[in-house]
Amino acid sequence: MTLTVLLIVILLAAAAFVLGRRRAARRAEALTGRARAHSRPVQHGAYAMIWVAAPALFVLIALSILSGPISHQLIQTGQPEAVERLEGFRKNAFVADAARVADGEPAQAIWEPEVAQHLAPEGARAARIQTTLMWAGVVGALLAGLVGGLVAFMRIRPDFRARNRVEGWIVGLLLVCSAIAILTTIGIIASLLIDATRFFSAVPLPEFLFGTQWSPQTAIRADQVGSTGAFGALPLFAGTFLIMLIAMAVAAPVGLFAAIYLSEYAGAASRAIIKPVLEILAGVPTVVYGFFAALTVGPAFREGFNTLGRWLVGGPLDGLGQYLMLVQNQMALVAGAVMGIMLIPFVSSLSDDILNAVPQSLRDGSYAMGATKSETVSRVLMPAALPGVAGALLLAMSRAIGETMIVTMAAGLAARLTLNPLDTVTTVTVQIVTLLTGDQEFNSTKTLAAFGLGLTLFVVTLALNVIAQRIVQTYRQQYD
Amino acid sequence: MKQTIYRSQDGLEGGAPAAGVPAELAAAAQAATDPKGAAPVGPTKIAARDVSVFYGDKQALFDVSLDIPDKTVTALIGPSGCGKSTFLRTMNRMNDTIAGAKVTGRIEMDGEDINARSLDPVLLRARVGMVFQKPNPFPKSIFENVAYGPRIHGLTRSKDELAGVVEESLRRAGLWEEVADRLHSAGTGLSGGQQQRLVIARAIAVNPEVILMDEPCSALDPIATAKIEELIDELRERYCIVIVTHSMAQAARVSQRTAFFHMGRLVETGDTEEIFTNPRERRTLDYITGRFG
After folding, report:
1. Residue A442: DSSP 8-state
2. Between A235 and which of A263, A300, A410, A417 could a Cys-Cys bridge form, CB atoms 3.0 to 4.6 Å apart?
3. Residue A417: how many CB atoms within 10 A of its CB?
4. For A337-366, what is each residue's pLDDT tens digit?
5. A364, B148: Cβ pair inside 8 Å?
């Protein structure tokens, strides 16, 4: 139905365009010189079209949002007394079942006879209300379009500035789109701040930032063990930092060297192969990296370390061997290494852009001095590109910190304050996931802790991004 | 050079300046050549024979044969896209750095084929310095810019020696007085004219035999241009200099030999005085009098 109405609105708008254009053309026909029409007929047509489409669409959108609550309200009022007496959630179930019965399907719940007798008539009434609302919407939308079109039509005169009016509408449309993006961001930050404040009123900020114990499991009953929970996030920060370091140790050199190869050494042929492959790597969903880490890399690493451990046991490094034999699938090294692989295309494509932005004249100057390619790269290009590359690495860091899927699947859950890459660690993002998935009560300190972590994460990545953007920007200006 | 439009004339032969050549140009050319008359042209340093350059399928240079004498400034002139810069870049094999570029023919420097397989272009470029249109100091200090060549080629054995080379090069480029007190500030912070003299200092720091200049003054103001031209005149005593220029007046002022290129071909070459007073070819006359280009 909505689709049909949409089609009608589009047709009406098209008709308004054609008619408006013709009307404007006819009115302007005899005019010449100074009296010439201000805007071209096409612009008058576009103006009329907007005035048909905009009000109609506005009414359609408004009603599609409001019709749910309105019909709910209408159905609720005027129900028979027997239904009226039901509890809130049963009342909702009754309304749903009434709709089913009206459609000829059996009811899902078993109702007492005094309620059941109202099912069919109430269902029919609900259907009537909904149909009425729908038709009201359709008529309202078409009416709004027609009235709008009429108003626009009356305005079409040679001296009417349709061109500027259309421009105004376009500005408005663009403004609304950017406002949506900004308002959403503000909304996210606000909800984060509000819930985080609630969390920090329960757990003091210093305890959260510097506490070394993380065990958010609060007891359901007061007599259980560990009923309070501990919210020291330091182990999470340590885990996040450790995995980020490992990821950067992989991504920074590999990505950077790949970028250097691509921008300075690769011929057109090898570039045509490597670039798309890197883009494929960038397009792999992180969940795929996640199970690659958990099911392939993790077991392989464990196997390798365990074998090494068996070798070492009994020798001079017996203690180390004992330890290596007990290494598990989940460890910071696996998550970090796979995350590093994920970041390679990110680092390399950013660095590639930055190297390409270094003016050719610098390369020419260096080659003309008799420098080789690698001398040119290390002595001229890298110093010139360094700020930009630093910015790119900061951006990669902020992605590594915010990355969730790989660590959820491969890093583990144990909140341990360690810098040992073979240990299982947990990260801020992993903890947010575990705190908020499954059935949760939304007012406990445990769930609110997720917002505290989220806010911390947000602040850190925002700071990294701002610094990185600054650096990259000043670098760009240098060569513009 | 579009300010004077002359009608076509015929008197292309004879010793007196051909009708149509602006008197200032002819006078400048005469002064640059030598006050005493004889052109002080050294022995041939670079000999090009039938040099053609292709960029992919497009031929940019057609069978150019030209002798470039030592201790002389040779100007390459011609309208945009005539191949003069392309020819310049064959002499230090900079065309190698352009994908799809191919050079045929023979270029000899002191009798040695510079396109020979056995010759390392990296070493060739240490002997043939180059200065570009836009000053391109590296994003390093003034000192490090000049020290770049000596460092990568390992020319000096001690810090003091390197400092000596840097000072000497900056002096020869006429920049020492202006930067002596800020050797370690950024080379990119200098003015355009100073930057261009800095890259000249950078080029001469490795003691090259030839200096190629690709429109070295086109991005500079008249005062900076005058300084560079003065410098070129001084450098002539030690080096073989080849300069590409769009300015007829500059070619007349600084060069002793001139080669006129058009449409990828070498049209005419000779003593600068000769070219600017009495060109043999009609096209040369048309170009230097500003009728096209």
Report:
1. T
2. A417
3. 15
4. 999 999 999 999 989 988 988 888 999 999
5. no
